[in-house]
């Protein structure tokens, strides 16, 4: 791979995209948890969006 064409702006944009995606995932999880809490028939343990491994 040729990394000589990699500029500071490219790195900054890539980092910004990762941070925005991470923040968006937090809001998506909160939204899905709120939505699942309104649905009848779903137990509180099923509302959690991650398994216990």
Describe this structure in words.
With 53 residues, the protein is mainly α. Helix content is 66%, strand content 0%. 0% of the residues are buried.
Any key phrases for this structure?
53 residues; mainly alpha; single chain
Can you summarize this structure?
This protein is mostly helical. It is built from two helices and no strands. It starts with 7 loop residues before the first helix and ends in a 6-residue tail after the last helix.
Strand and helix layout:
Layout: H1 8-38, H2 44-47
The total strand number stands at: 0
Mean pLDDT: 84
The DSSP helix count reads: 2
- Portion of residues within helices: 55-70%
Percentage of residues in strands: under 5%
Biggest sheet statistics: none
Name the overall outline.
rod-shaped
Structural class: mainly alpha
* Structural Rg: 18 Å
Distance between the termini: 37 Å
Task: Pick out the low-confidence regions.
Answer: none
Element order, helices and strands?
HH
Oligomer classification: single chain
